[in-house]
Structures
1.
Amino acid sequence: MELSTFFQQLANALSLGSLYALIAIGYTMVYGILRLINFAHGDVFMLGAYFAFYAISALAMPWWIAFVVALGLTALFGIGLERAAYRPLRDSPKISVMISAIGASFLIQNLGVVIFGGRPKSFPSIALFDTVVHFGPVSVLSVSLFIPVVTFLSLAGLLWIVNKTKTGLAMRAVSTDLDAARLMAIDVNKIVSITFGIGSLLAALGGIMWTMRYPQLNPLMGVMPGLKCFIAAVIGGIGNIGGAVLGGFLLGMMEILIVAFLPELTGYRDAFAFVMLIIVLLVKPAGLLGKAQAVKV
Amino acid sequence: MLRTDSVSMRFGGLTAVADLNIAIEKNEIIGLIGPNGAGKTTAFNMITGVYTPTEGKVFFKSHDVTGMKAHRITHKGIARTFQNIRLFKDMNVLENVLVACHLRMDVGVFASTLHLPGYLKKERESKDFAMSLLESVGLADEAAESAISLPYGKQRRLEIVRALATKPELLLLDEPAAGMNPQESLELMDFIVRIRDQYDLTILLIEHHMQVVMGVCKRMYVLDYGVTIAHGTPDEIQKDPKVIEAYLGVE
């Protein structure tokens, strides 16, 4: 393989990994607070992309306004999703909430088919993100350069909120012990809403950048990335934000590099994520950065 | 200060607490005792809003707080500790106290995220307050240590400090002396009386160490199988035949 091909693939891997990381954060945050896998997270990601699409194409907004609107709407949608599908089941067995999450996922997908139509749509081209940039023999789409930067900035902002603010302290308290946090006068519902809002906002950010990178939208576009990012979060150690980012990057890198170096395995690209999951669960069940928890019996 | 009006808690067919009538005046230290499973912690859970009583009413400073959400009740001025220590174990000692301080620190999400000057000032005040609390109980030197690395007795004290940081008027202590040796229990008794005077508190405590309860409580209530079987001063309780029966059995 030539060096230029290697760098080309590395650039691809970096942007795919960043996108995975951004989505995986949403899974891990919700799990950290509620011990719930939000299976509808991939569909929230899809909605973010559609909101941006309609804001630009139907409402003719400038792209940056459209993006802000889409991020806001998706965050609100995530908050509403928690209110409608998860909060009423807060004290029910975990399995009920999980089934509700799976149901919500199917509902959003199928409503998407009804409302947006099943036929794929193509995302409008935005010059800033849609130019090809050449570095010697390596050429990448400009959006691929933005993706890692945006991911890095979002991650920095998130870590700031979690570690340096009152809201973040409350989030950590709720995540350690929900009942004790409540008795410290923390409004748990508010913290849960904020968590869903932030997670959904990051998913929307991922969704928008995803459609600019792979410029096609369809109502099922969230299924595969959603599943893979869930795996990324588990690989990194679910509940751990740094772990989700690490898992996302690892998964993205491995996926692209395997396809690049072993082209005959391209067809197994999606299966690869699951193989990786199985290996990690066998070797380090708590995930790479997860702490093994002793269960009191 | 606190009055419960015939509160009962039923779980399906099981009555955990029946017709509980407690009345506490300001600055009293009152004990709630009884054998295991008598419903003491359930009573705490009803007062602090963890459970909504199936029947009856809870009044705090003459306001009806029955069925109010736990975080609202803490706002009103009731704080508690737990039987099995429930510190935020991923945080350090100071952060554990700061979490509780934030109740009285009224700033919005945006001001806090952007670290606006008003927020920074209040944040500093909270830190000072938290440190002064830790100092007053001799935990200031451990402020930066992780909460679970503290020895057991200090974890108990930290839990009480965390409850104090919400600036309560009524403090509920669930078995504060659990797992302590006689010497530590004696220190705890002094500590409880001291914080009562220093922070102008009213205290209701659950305790099995008779030495502790008899030593600090002016009056006490005795529960057995959810039913209040006795109420009175330590002397009266020690002589009460029903209490002796509940604790020792009777021939």
Note: The two ends of chain A are 55 Å apart (CA to CA).
2.
Amino acid sequence: MKDYRIIFEKKDNMKYISHLDLNRCMIRSVRRSGLPAWYTEGFHPHLYLMFPLALSLGTESICEVMDLRLTEEVSEQEILEKLNSALPKGLHAICVREPDNQAQDITSAEYILELSSPEIADLKSCWLNFFHQPEILTQKRTKKGMREIDIKPVLKIEKISTQDNKLKLILKLPAGNDGNINTSVVIDAFKKYAGKPILINYLCRTKIFCKNSQEFL
Amino acid sequence: MMKNKIEKFLLDVQKPSRYTGGEVGEIIKDKSKIDVRFAFCFPDIYDVGMSHLGMKILYSLMNERENYWCERVFAPWVDMEKIMRQEHILLYALESGDAIKDFDFIGFTLQYEMSYTNILNMLDLAGVPVLQKDRGEQLAPLVVAGGPCACNPEPLADFFDLFILGEGEEVNLELLDLYHTMKHAGATRSEFLKQACQIEGIYVPSFYEVNYHENGTVKEILPHENAPKIIKKRVIKNLDKCYYPEQVVVPFIEPVHDRISVEVLRGCIRGCRFCQAGFLYRPFREKSAEKICQQGITLCKNSGYDELSLSSLSTSDHSQIEKIFDELLEYTEQEHINLSLPSLRIDNFSKSVLDKVTRIRKSGLTFAPEAGTQRLRDVINKNITEEEVMKTCQIAFAGGYTAVKLYFMMGLPTETDEDIIGIAALAQKIVDLFYHMPEHAKGKLQVSVSTATFVPKPFTPFEFEPQATKDEILRKQKILKKAITSKKIKTSMHISDVSQMEAVLARGDRRLCAVIYDAWKNGCHMDSWEEFFNASKWYEAFRKNNLSPEFYANRTRNYDEIMPWSHLDYFISRKFLIRENQKAHQEQITKSCRESCTGCGTNQSLGRACF
């Protein structure tokens, strides 16, 4: 029995697959791959898969993580080959490693966003004005219903640039069990601030971090 | 390409992957090398259509031909439909993303009557004229349909170029081949239809003239254009030699039935008098145990599914069922696959079969006694005795089952209040049995009783019978509710408005085309979804066309009446149906086909014995 951590991409049409659907899709892909998957013991044995961090619908990613347990040791190369031959287009395993960190170690994640707006002349300054407010209040859906939160303290811009009035941002947002902020929460707040339609051209998760900005391994 | 246009709206709708395609098992081809493009349309949403076995078979079958490309099309859910109409996005096929109006064929499967308005809506969304006569002389797209409801396609006659009767595996390819040849020759639509109607199983409704008596019944059905007087359904001779897919499209979202299916047999030996499928799909044919196991294993391997269903009208009637179980269980248990058996009959549910099912999964047990008393079960020829029900429940309870689902019909011919009270009595007896068993399982017992309103259907011995009126059904539902006293028994009862409309459409004639058209124009669609069915809009459409739903649903038909489907031959003779109807009223049962031939006429049409 051995655990493997698989880093995979979720791109193109696969961004429209919900977390639950991804789970089902991965189970079937592993079954098709012929890898010696480990099944839970008990009355209804099921294939053991674990996703340390969910990705919201509509977001692409180049850094998704899935932990898979196999009954025997298999080379990384073989896992990659077998899994990739079974995955649908848009899902692609990049590398396999031994799990180091645990799901609860995750603290933040990095995203690339590309936004545009036909009705806002200078989208970058609009964004900066939005960002430099003393507080950024917005609605977040929680288990207890909608709750108002201030995202100013946790919102970090890693990089900002523009091209043809397309605003390109690299954002770092809290992720994991101790408070997760979706990009949609930020974008909704920005839309509300701008008061004009804003289009998301591209949205992709690029990195997952643990404490002290260590990458999740 | 429509798919690009829809991309920016995908996050505004529920379950966006209904509209993207890209699933494992999807078949993509190079358009430039394709001679015939076929849009296989299921007139309901993706989640429903992706559960349909027939579509999986015909999709793979047509795509086996290198130069033909069959793609999937489903009705968009209302949120997406709104966007498509606002943004002028035409209905497209999932594989290529191309608008289906540019395809050679637009083919619908007719699975249930309440999907008819969705067909009109889908054609309209596709930008294709809804009425056949408005499609002109250009050859494509040809709008065609098959499936069980094609046995009386008259209410849809104005919308389709042709219907395909019976089993599609052979005739679909014959039709596509003819089209391929005639397309190259530059044929017009009517030239093609004149040739197509000569293929056995192809019915071109526009070549037939229907005249009516003053009382509204059919007077005569006259063929024109040299079309055959009687159109025979198609039947596959040998299931082992018949095409069956080795891979299916595996959806991302969870469809209604999220599993792989192997068809184990076609037809049914039982002859339950209410059951249309039991007559339409005759003769009874089994697939060999070897083929079933081989196909099941191949499909599991290729798809990655962890549930395999053995599907048919009555799986336990397969003569080698235990052998199939043994062989398949050996594989499925090792591979962690659930074997599911949706159509097991109560009477031959033996201890050893039950043991095997128990090994698979301990969930609920489902029975369909259909009627509450032995008298009424004899009338409908559902040959199950109360003793058998109790015996099976006893085995099941001893095996640890704690949930029993019972399905019944209301409004059956000759039904009395006593029969309704019998439903409650049977459910109560099951509850009592459970608690009287010394070693009954600890879990909480739940007996659910579901009742549906009986809908008389063509090609059954009850095709002559009136449907019970809505008031009568409501009265009987009240009686049943009152008769059920145990808290262990839960009831759910089907609304009767929908059932009435089903009865109308099932036995309707061509004049209903105008009603369906007007109902759709009035906004009716997604009628099989409770929240969208609007009875008053349907009634309005009837009034506008001077027709009454009661004429179709609640009228007794004479044995010699010409039915709207009398020119369609499903191998079931009228004489047999009359005989069975008389026997029903005499409360006499008919044995299964395996015990003795019932003389339904199928063997004469086939020119051979069924067994």
Note: Chain A touches chain B through 26 residues (CB under 8 Å).
3.
Amino acid sequence: MNRLLALLKREWKTGQKDYSTYGLVIVLLLFAFETMQSLVARYAGSSFPMEVYSEMFPGFLLLGGFITTSLLFSEDMFSKDAQHTWLMLPATNLEKFVSKALISTLVYPIAVTLLFFLASVITEPIQLLIFGSPIGLFNPFKDNELGSLLAQYWVWNSVFLLGATFFRKAHFVKTVLAVGVVFLGLGALALLFTRIVFAIKFGSSLQMFDSFMYFDSRYLQDSLTALKVFSGITKVFYYAVLPVFCLVTAYFRVEEVQATDAV
Amino acid sequence: MASQEVSVSSEYGIEGDVVVRMTDISFAYQSKKLFSNLDLEIRRGNIYGLLGKNGAGKTTLLKLLSGQLFVQGGSVEVFAQNPQKRTPSLLQEIFYLPEEFPLPKMKATEYLAMLSPFYPRFDHTMFGVYCKDFDVDLNQRLDQMSLGQKKKVLLSFGLASNTALLILDEPTNGLDIPSKRQFRQTVASAMTENRTFIISTHQVRDMENLIDPIIILHDGSVIFNDTVASVSDKYVLNLTTSEPSKEHALYTEKVLGGWMVLSERGEGSEGQPLDLETLFNVVIQTSKGTMGGVR
Amino acid sequence: MQFNTLSPIYLQIAEYIHDLILNRIWDDGQRIPSVRDMAMELEVNPNTVIRTYAMLQEEGTLENQRGIGYFTAKDARSLVLKQRREKFIKRELPQLFSTMETLGITWEDLQQYAHTEEVGNEIQA
């Protein structure tokens, strides 16, 4: 437990500068956009600006998060000069993996959410003083959007975490490409599957889209329940099985690298 | 000091438990074979000196025994564990100071706070003492330090970590002259009977009286692993003005004013002990022949 | 301390300690630096110091009080003096005589030199 804390502290210490810069960029960007909107609202006379925060939040949470996650293992596991400092740190593989996984799955989303809130707390009163714009703080709980965003973050962050451990270089781009390839593959499979099912039912001469005409309302109810069950299964798979699978595989990947001499 | 250490023979220095045992190991980089059938035993409570020509594989040997590199044949045991498993219990007993290394962009104090928790017996007081002795400014940033300064920080860290095994790869490289002296003092003072230091070097003069026993690595194997005394007790060096006959001399070297001749020490025979440089040359040159105390 | 290459280090350290005792820098029965401190001061392997201390303990110059440390013996100075005198008579005198004979220096010459300042200083140094 002490070692895990020490590892977490080390993660923060080594990334401190980058994280601070990133945070500062977010705050400054938000401030700049707010100011621009206030200016436009005041001098162009257009209606009062919409909220910048909730528009930009998903971008920073998801895209920024995934890029950060992608780079998480880059130095420690794959840099020729530095990898041995991490590999030879007196801690178990699990502790080393968990420390990084915790940073990216838990600490990052919480930190970004807080940062957005803080940015709005700082920005809004200034806007009020200078331009007289009404105060509109960043409220992550509005519209219940945060929950679904975080869920998406959890799923896809796990995928990028796997990519970060799996690829030695260009982790982010390669993960995106790999995901693209997997989707294309799955899509093709689904298409093939449907084609085969329809072919079995209606004979191979039938074009797939023509078959929709044969749908009967009597079957509709059955189809809907089947669809509900199916979507239930998909949800479990998407939100639980897939990310857990990615995390476990990423952990095994750390074990694998640790079990070689990494030259 | 315990009493057993006092009742010593001339063999003193390589008593103590075996802490590192390498048996019949082989290792190659891609197609370049480096070690084959290498055996090595290292005993507790000593400051070993690892000598070898450039490219003999000193660094590789140190990386193999610390578990950074993996042997391709044979076995390595460090404190009865396989270092390749990299268990935390073993890793926290090994500190390895590489010859060159990148350090994170932070102050020495931050570095200390970050990494010392990983070593259970880390002594913060001694770290401060060592750094002061080495004249290191702990508030300077590590990435702005010279190689010598960085080495001093890491050396202080390693000595203060109180690991049972301390591996130093060319530690005096990059140190200025006063620091080399401080190095000898600090290492001598940090040594205890429970610790084992392994220091690789090709600058034997920097630590002439510090390292002992000596390990000499040559042609892919350890050709010498013994105390300097074991050789001095058996052989003597003499300066002669006439060219020595090949029969009696085990090793000759032309020097100013004659020849240095190494011969077996007879009853009451006088002569100089071997300095490390001569020892090294003798061992390397006679490695193909046979020489009693040299293995 | 500067070491030479003429004899093993542990013997040179023993000579050094003998000098300290002879010159009364270390008194009889006095506590002396630990192995660690000595090794640090001389910049040598602690095991070498242990070897020297062990040797001096065997010849009776040093004593080891377990748990406390090393001390010079009660009669350390007289022991060292005796040893040094023996060495001078057995080793250095014959050499001196042989040199005197080679260079044709007589006893009278020697006595004369012994009282001049120059040589006296050199001997002390």
Note: Residues 17 and 26 of chain C are 8 Å apart (CA to CA).
4.
Amino acid sequence: MKRGASSGWRGLPPLLFALPLLFLLLFYLYPLAAIIGLSFELGGGAGRLFSPAIWRVIRFTFAQALLSTLLTLLAGLPGAFIVARYDFPGKSLFLALTTLPFVLPTVVVAAAFSTLLARFDLRYTLTAILLAHLFYNEALVIRMVGSFWRTLDPRLEEAARLLGASPWRAFREVTLPLLMPAIESAALLVFIFCFTSFGVILILGGPRFATLEVEIYRQAIAFADFPSAALLSLLQIGFTLAATLLYTRLEARHARPLRLRRRERERKRPTGAVRWAVYGYLLATLGYLVMPPATLVARSFGEGLGFYRALFYNPRRSIFYVPPIEAMRNSLLFAAATMGTALVLGLLTALLLHRRRGGEWLDALFMLPLGTSAVTLGFGYLVAWGKPCCDLRGTALLIIAAHTLVALPLVVRAILPALRAIRPALREAAALLGATPLRRFLSIDLPLTWRALAVGALFAFTVSMGEFGATSLLARPERPTLPIAIYRFLAKPGASNYGQAMAMSTLLMGLSLLAFLLIERLHPPEGWLA
Amino acid sequence: MRRWMLLMMLIGLVLTACAPHRAAPATPTAPSPTVLRVMTHDSFSVSEEVIARFEREHNVKVQFLQAGDAGTMLSQAILSRDNPQADVLFGVDNTFLGRALEADLFIPYHPAALDRIPAELQLDPEDRVVPVDYGDVCLNYDKRYFAEHDLPLPEDLADLTRPIYRGLLVVENPATSSPGLAFLIATVGRFGEEGYLAFWEQLAANDVRVVDGWETAYYGEFSGGAYSEGERPLVVSYATSPAAEVYFSEGALDEPPTGAIVAPQTCFRQIEFAGILRGTKEEALARAFIDFLLDEPFQRDIPLQMWVYPAREGTPLPQLFIDFALQAEEPITVPAEQIDARRETWIRDWTEAVLH
């Protein structure tokens, strides 16, 4: 492990690196401490918690998360390979479409999904949960691993082949070990997402299944048993910490500096027998990932453009009516702000983690927000940032902070493997040639991690577009996002409400799709790369 | 060049996103009105002109805070008790009332209009909260299914365990849903604390389906609504849902495709209350707002905004309600103290009996 031995950015002002820590302190640790302290202060209820039922919940939470992660890796890795190695028509559209599930609120997905599940009699089963988790997370694997794979130097594998290794052996002994850091990064994220799964479990799994997250919600809302909810939240955070530490161990063993390539190697169209396998996989994946959203779109046109037109009227003159354009604008603004802050903080965090020896604990600290219950954190914000001196409740700042907190780990996980794979010799050479730290960063690290940064940006944007749980606690009703507007329609009976919810979902998807394609097109300007 | 512009656009977006909350305090209207903050749940709604009238009369800006479903709102109010987010809270119902009162969230106030509100809706003798509206949680049925299969409607909750209704009913989980909790309490009221679990075990044996919340039950499992996708013709919903089906069909339906069963002892009446939050700095205005909630303009506005009934006696109802909305003939009542003392136990026992 030579990481950290040669940081290229020693000259950057150290205060800059304090920013992510400050952010974490203000918008994660402080609210968390505030809510947990208050919960125990309020008292009552605790003690009944550690019944056999709770062990059942813990066991199930682990089991479903492990199974979901395995399934997602199995299904996603071939996709990562294809995306890295081959060109095919409509590739960027394919990538954008596979990312769509990320923005869709669970209630909406569940509606489309359950029709599909009912056909195979799978509703309210463990299989339904696993399939939904696959649906939501497959893009993470395809994108994170795929973008890393693309930058690997193919000559290593080619050399192995020249020396007589079979393609399988060359993959297993050369490429796979090199890929491990990216695979582990993606696997950790998928695991934590599934570990803290809420909507999927409630709606598609049905009430027979409960994860810790569901149990926390039950304790905090149905029973108002705040100490139990706080204890369970701590337990959930503890498990996340353990999982992340395990990951950092593995990752440290596997990460190594590589000869990364900025100019990607020529990718070719698949030919021969491979072609059928590749197109078969692409069609199957697309079919699986796109069918539920397509059902929603079809339903939104159930009365021609009727539901869309209805979005623009407020016949009951309700004060909570939201013009769709405004909801789109709110969503876009929050998402863009989240992307901006998450990118800046994420890049700084990744540099900080990269250059520090023994950064595992720090690394784990930055992952914890993902493993923290949304209800707990949402309430934490309201308690911590509701003091008379500094009442931020209802401001856009809290929403952006909450979204950034979830987006940050994604950005860090996307960047870190790429950053660690940069050979220190490059930076050393640049330093010898007299390049300033900023210059070294701009001309070495930034170009070589650009693709990873773009993936991080994309997920930060997506997370914010689709976020519902924390937003619903923090947003003012007059400034709702698209997911909140969707829920408002779904909460009432009647054809036009349902139709308008579907129309609003379609707008959410369309807008996200446009944004994905746009982000995909961002590249570093040539001038930076001298 | 174009890429730079894209980048600049994104940065611009980020900046504009940060701007609004800094610019917000500058309200243009002349002698800057006071702000009255009202915390409600997601189902709260009111017409613009009704609120505008209150704002004009009292030179106040009413700022609503929708704090999730009723349970989430209450937990939120309890947790932020020391620094309340609002001056008035609207929407705590009789299934959660005890918890709110126990947490000492409210300052008592006795509005004059309470005389016009039926005594059976007034559950807090100390006037910490006042009833504003009520609605009945009742079984809804798919008219077409019952006609096609020539099935009689269930007239008693006990009927639901009969084999002819096997696999027909979908209910909401009382731990995660407000109508689900209301229905569980209804069964306790109907069969007593000794009998309700046995009823539920029979119901489970009769293939009842339990889902997380009303949306999944009504849209995903129920077969009756215009856009419902499910196959089960019986669902726990509200007595006004059929009227909402007509209203939200936008003229496509003259008559609801669903019906509500309002037979005696089958429904639970949810009463919604409002109260002045302790710690308010605008107590006089908060009182005026409570008066306003019980005053006729707001009361008349309730049915079509929230699909429940106004608490004030003699409030005229919209024609749609007269034609299609029903009221429980003799709702099941369970004393508020009993609900409050036993709510958690019922949910836990129910979970063990029905889900495991």
Note: Confidence is low (pLDDT under 50) at residues 1-8, 526-530 of chain A.
